[in-house]
Amino acid sequence: MAFLNSLPARGDLVEIRLGPMRAWVACHPELVHRMLMDPRTFDKGGSQYDRLRALMGDGVVTCRQPAHRRQRTLLQPDFRASRVADYTELMGEEAESVCRTWRAGQRIDVSAAMMALTTRVTSRVLFSDSLDAATAAQLRNSLGTIVRGLFVRTVVPVDAPFRVPTPANRRYRREVDRLHGIIDSVIAARRRGTPRDDLLGTLLAAARDGGEDSRAGGEDTAVTEQEVHDQLITLLLTGVETTALCMASALSLLAQHPETERRLHSEVDTVLAGRRRPDLDDLPRLTYTRSAVTETLRHSPPGWLFTRVTTRETEFAGCRLPEGATVLYSPYLLHHDPASFPDPELFLPERWLPGSERATAASHRAMLPFATGSRKCLGDAFAMAEATVAVATIAGRWRLRHPPGPVEPPRPAVTFGPRSLPMICEPRSVDPVGTPPLSRSRTPRATVTSHVQDPRTAGDHGVDNA
Known about the structure:
With 466 residues, the chain is of the alpha+beta class. It has a single domain (2-211, 220-427), classed as CATH 1.10.630.10. 48% of the residues lie in helices and 11% in strands. The strands form 5 sheets. A 5-stranded mixed sheet has the order 1-2-10-7-3. It has a 3-stranded antiparallel sheet with strand order 4-14-11. A two-stranded antiparallel sheet has the order 5-6.
């Protein structure tokens, strides 16, 4: 990370070596925007996506640009604002379920708990209640092992080390096979059962209706059996760990900043008014909580390094890049550049409050946790809502504390964040843990200043679109 942060001093576009390979790092936010807004010239590719494609197949995240529009059009309705609103209750139920079992003084692994939460939420969105508790736990363990093994496979440019039957390689292959087996079983069971209104249902309906040679508007709209499988794998791998790491990082950072934590607790107590979890109407009022999530994505972005490959010879920042050149960009680098974010190492949710002097046009432009353009993250609004609901639900009941001693910094892998985060539970409520949720208060809520995003422009920039 220190190496990344040193690059802007060398220029807006810096050539580096990755072993025998040349690559260029875009260090200026305007360059990154230019690249992301031109996916026909800067397509997804390079060793990172080649290895991801071997695992995920040709899904919406890894597919080449010509196939992307059709895939995104198919999946987008399940992530539109109205659907995200429908999922809010589900998110709150799962967040409450995770923290309901905690006990005062208990030492918990927050990273594992957040993985359990996001696995349950994502699997319910993708295929309703098709997973029992044992299968969900198996899925969570498989995803953890796979993500840990992915990073080295995406940065090492040769395959030979991964064909050696070392314990780590065998473990990785075993969990990949197990993950694919779980998805195949879910698909097979659904085909035998009743259609459901979930994302798997959307994919299976498209596979039935598309036909082998169906065309609409000149584009091939057929959805194959393999694509159904690939999209589920893709959405699981991209929707579970990244959001879990964001939530774990947020809880860790709050514990390290008591004044920020107190302000967030005050907002949650005011908005929830004694209830156990937020509902849809509460989300626009959780302004500071959402700002804390946004600042976490700036400070510790789970997606910290991405690659693009040029599809033709092109001029970029005064440099002539050949066809097939690898160009990297790093949200971590952009988010820690003091030119865009003064005091970048500080955790300051106030940067993102409406009317804040810190939320400049430059900072919004440099804030790219979900990318931008036509290949901006499909589930950005979903992830923001899930993280906000989870942090508010946990903060309403618990104060989490780091054990004595230094806090281990997050480690970069294919994603960035705390792989293991031990914390100690302190209850915030006098109510015994495990008591039934309080009914909705009939007392009028205190007025809370909020900023409600216009849904017509939601998603244009940054993360202000949930």
